[in-house]
Amino acid sequence: MKNIHIKLITCCLTLGLSGILLSGCQDVLDQEPLSSLSEAAYFKNKEHFVAAANFLHTRTGFEDGDETSDLSNNVTDATERYGRGLNIADPNDEVYKDNYFALRAANQLIDKAAEYAGDPSEIAPSVGTAYFFRAWHHFNLLKKYGGVVIAAKTMDVNSPELTAKRNSRYEVAFQIMNDLDEAIAKLPAASTLGLADQGKLSLEAARSLKARLLLYEGTWEKYVGTAADGDGTSTGAGSAKPAGYPSVTEMLTMAKSEALAVMNSGAFQLWDYKAELGRDHLFYLFNLEDGGSNPAGLSKADNKEYIFQTVYDFNLRRIPNPNSNLTHAKPWGPTRKLMDMYLCADGLPVQHSADFEGYATMTSEFQNRDHRMLTFLPLKKYWGWGNNVDGGGAQYGVAFEDSGIAFDYRHVPNLSSPGTPRNVGYAGRKFITEMKLRETGSESYNYPLIRLAEVMLIYAEATVELNGGTISDADLDLSINKLRTRAGVGRLTNALIAPYPDLTMLGEIRRERAIELFGENFRFDDLKRWNIAPQELNQDITVTVIKGTEWETAENPKNPGKPIYTAGAFELSTEPKSNSSYAGFATVPAGTIVLDRASNRNFSIKHYVDAIPLDEMQLNPNLLQNPGW
């Protein structure tokens, strides 16, 4: 390929796919297009289009979300630089190439559908799938780079797009909107899909993605505007808007409408198994496989919350590298900021709630709090994972002392070594298996790419943005109060926050988004579209409150006679300090571990869009670099 690295699918089309779990056939051509003979021989009947559409699902995976952000304690590894603003222009960025690779497969199906001799309605779901994924991969590129060259047809070595200038972000967004309208028109309703089609796309998935895009672009234009666009002449992709491009108000109105349609479809419901699994029920949403993965014997079929997901299977498609060490690494641990963002049982933040029990003991801050915090609870004895490596895995219905497991698997946070890259202060259990038949590296739970909780958050945020910072209790009850109820937190109402001048509806809805979606690859995008990334990311990263608490003197229960905390190993804050641009978040108490100083962090508006890969610019001299890179 002489310009953009668009990899071309070969054997996957000629062999076909038996289902969306199959991910083989990775051989690709980098230098020449698929022959017209093989294309013509392949796209002959409905089954060919179904197989090609199934292949498109294999281009999604497990996202590496939120590490090094203001909410993540995984910042001490020198290679993890993004949240610090220390990333550099990458000569060879796989995200760029992989998304164009995937776009060619989608375009090929769309182009061949125009030549199909049969009834167009019988291949409509496959074509709708292709339009969805064409939107999905353009959106991936948009979020990372801003404006890019639109790939809306199958290209070969002579295609003018390979030496084209970048389209503006507005032109790309408009293309995505139009593609999603096509997907909505062609995809089936989720209610018509059976269990055998779990993971396949529905019109509600397309509506949800459109709602996400419209909220993203509507708030980006409202708060960021053209600041990261460049002039399109010397830097960046410029700010050209196509005819008919919607206004901010129109985008937010459509986002709310699309979200409401999905919420009202009846096809999805929030995971809420408190009665069967207790307060820890949300832990099991994110490691759900078959009945052996949870005490209630629930399977993936019992999860009605995921609207669009990457489907994994122990026999056919396990979670691949580079994320196959998930359970062992426990990469999603919280900062002090995130811990204090979680609300108390009465629905109020820690600085205002009579329910908050402070930091004096090692677990007091977890009392009377949001159930979603339980994934960080220290010193709790729980099952390990696997057959014989770390703990032995869950034996539901058997007491620990009767299980025969000698491995002491309790989270004892690292409070002694700042050189350890993860789990300093707190450890996280989101996306962690405890299944007896799963060693780390063989986890096979599905990954949520869009879930109903996010759609409810979109509805609430679009509403408060449209209404100048206000939202009715009825709209809150329709959306985020459902999330708070299942998390054991009091409802958000106008009366609840009225006595507290530091609390706003917009701030509280943004809080809820951060809490609910932590570790799912949203935080950086949210901070950028709200244009508060420098203020939020360039703060001290802090974790456990040490001074005057039990942590300061406690013995390590897994290492008797040794303290948990090593005095002098970490810097401690010397005075209370705000860690956010939102006044409604609690200040960091004095005596808290400072994991990363603000002076180490230099995230700026330059980082709102990443650098165009340098090798792509060499291949196509018409690609202008983003401002500041």
Structure overview:
This protein has 629 residues and is mostly helical. 33% of the residues lie in helices and 4% in strands. It has helices spanning 11-15, 36-42, 46-57, 94-113, 120-145, 169-186, 203-223, 248-263, 274-277, 281-285, 326-329, 336-341, 452-466, 473-478, 480-486, 494-497, 505-516, 523-529, 533-537, 614-619, and strands spanning 8-9, 28-29, 306-310, 447-451, 541-545, 571-572, 592-596. It has a 3-stranded antiparallel β-sheet with strand order 5-7-6. The chain has a two-stranded antiparallel ribbon with strand order 1-2. The protein has a two-stranded antiparallel sheet with strand order 3-4. The longest helix has 26 residues, at 120-145. Mean pLDDT is 90; it is low at 1-37.
Strand content: under 5%
Total beta-strand segments? 7
* Quaternary structure type: single chain
Q: Strand arrangement, largest sheet?
A: 5-7-6
Notable characteristics:
mainly alpha; 7 strands; single chain; 629 residues; 4% strand; two-stranded antiparallel sheet; 3-stranded antiparallel beta sheet; disordered N terminus
Secondary-structure topology with pairs:
Elements: E1 8-9, H1 11-15, E2 28-29, H2 36-42, H3 46-57, H4 94-113, H5 120-145, H6 169-186, H7 203-223, H8 248-263, H9 274-277, H10 281-285, E3 306-310, H11 326-329, H12 336-341, E4 447-451, H13 452-466, H14 473-478, H15 480-486, H16 494-497, H17 505-516, H18 523-529, H19 533-537, E5 541-545, E6 571-572, E7 592-596, H20 614-619
Antiparallel strand pairs: 1-2, 3-4, 5-7, 6-7
Helix pairs in contact: 3-4, 3-5, 4-5, 5-6, 6-7, 7-8, 7-13, 7-18, 8-13, 13-17
